[in-house]
Amino acid sequence: MNQLKSAACTGGELLALRYDHTVPKARYVAQNNGKASRCYSIGRIYRRDNPQATRARYREFYQADFDIVGEYPPMAADAEVLKVGDFIIKISHRKLLDAMLTYCGVPANLFHPICSAIDKLDKESWETVRAEMIEQKGLPAEVADRIEPFTKMKGDMRTMIKELKARDWASCSAEANKAADVALKDMELLSDLLEAFGIKLKLFSLNLSLARGLDYYTGLIYEAVLDPTAGSAHGNMGSIAAGGRYDKMVGQFSSKTVPCVGVSVGVERVFAILEREALKQAEELGANVRESKTQVLIVSPGRQNLLQERCKLADQLLGAGFLVEAFTEKKMGFMDQIKYADVEGIPVVVVMGEKEIQKGVVKIRDQWRKKDDLDKEIEVPRTQLVEHLQKIRADNGAWNAQFTKPSEAF
Questions:
Q1: Tell me: the pLDDT tens digits for 240-258?
Q2: Which residues form the Aminoacyl-transfer RNA synthetases class-II family profile domain (predicted)?
């Protein structure tokens, strides 16, 4: 223990685990003169959080980021970042939130803590969030009650923009009116560009309960969640991607202001969703999820290992674009090798023994055919093996399927 304590204190430096990729990226941009670019990154990040395995929420996890850095036409980079797929995108704007809080009478020094409280509404009830605002943040109860109707405003972007433009922001203050005007013009332009990108606006929900607790956002903010009408196999996974515009961060590391916008994807959450969907589909098919991507297993019957010959054949098939295994972890009998192919969901077994080598042939076993199929196993010249495998691959969707064969195929 003393050695650990001594090692931890060496140098006397304070160290921190990486919270996200955004701040390090902004520092890098500042050190490289703010050059316009599209940046991609993936790596581990850390949070002091309560792990929830059912929601793929961990203290250490992988995050993948896409950011656009530099001056571009208004909302063009934002629209490009949001072209992420068929998810429901909850979207808001920090200036619109500032206008909302000013309108409701929230003091400027409480904007950030109140936004952090509002951002919990996807997990907590309004009563719980209201209590936090009043008891922990010191917000008057009547001000908190003015915020509630805004947090319930959500829906189609065009409809919501029209509704918010009709509100008398100027009656509150000139600052609130200006902030709301800038935000709503941004949202209108964004809607136009998203439609130009061919993105369905019905996938976007302008949602004033989305506040994003990080205070470095300066404009558009958003979160991507799965479409709740698409099924429940993924459970309550929460957001799988989030981001926004952070135009002032680079300026904290240099004298140059550089516009930036980006999105972060939770890799573990995506994998967890894919796994649950695969398990659900496999159950419907009466099959198992394949854990192997191998398309061809090369086996040798009898006591002859024929390792060199199998390696030569594997090299030929790999060169032809097939995913191949030439040997298993340990020595197996012929039927054990066939069973291994069944368990792993490998669609084709190529049998090559001494007799086959002497004759210049191989046997192809199509594992997805039923036992009584006459052409479940065929013998072909070795020179024609690639051609036959290509034909089987073209005729059989199992090659790229993520499931083992259905039970009725055994």
A1: 899 999 999 999 998 888 9
A2: 38-301
Phi, psi at residue 308, to the nearest 5°? Answer: -65, -40
Q: Quote the CA–CA distance of 11 and 14 in Å, as a whole number.
A: 9
Torsion, CA 305, CA 308, CA 311, CA 317, rounded to 10: -100
The reply to whether 14-280 and 296-409 are identical in fold is no
Q: Is 345 left (phi over 0), alpha (psi -120 to 50) or beta?
A: left
Q: CB of 99 within 8 A of CB of 179?
A: yes
Cα 78 from Cα 74, distance rounded (Å): 8
* The overall pTM is greater than 0.85: no
Run of H or E including 93: strand 88-93
Query: How buried is 345 (Cβ within 10 angstroms: 0-12 exposed, 13-18 middle, 19+ buried)?
Result: buried
Q: Give the C-alpha separation, 88 to 124, whole Å.
A: 20
Q: Quick one: fold of 14-280?
A: BirA Bifunctional Protein; domain 2 (3.30.930)
Cα–Cα–Cα angle for 98, 100, 102, rounded to 5 degrees? 70
* 289-314 pLDDT, tens digit each: 777 788 899 988 866 668 888 899 99
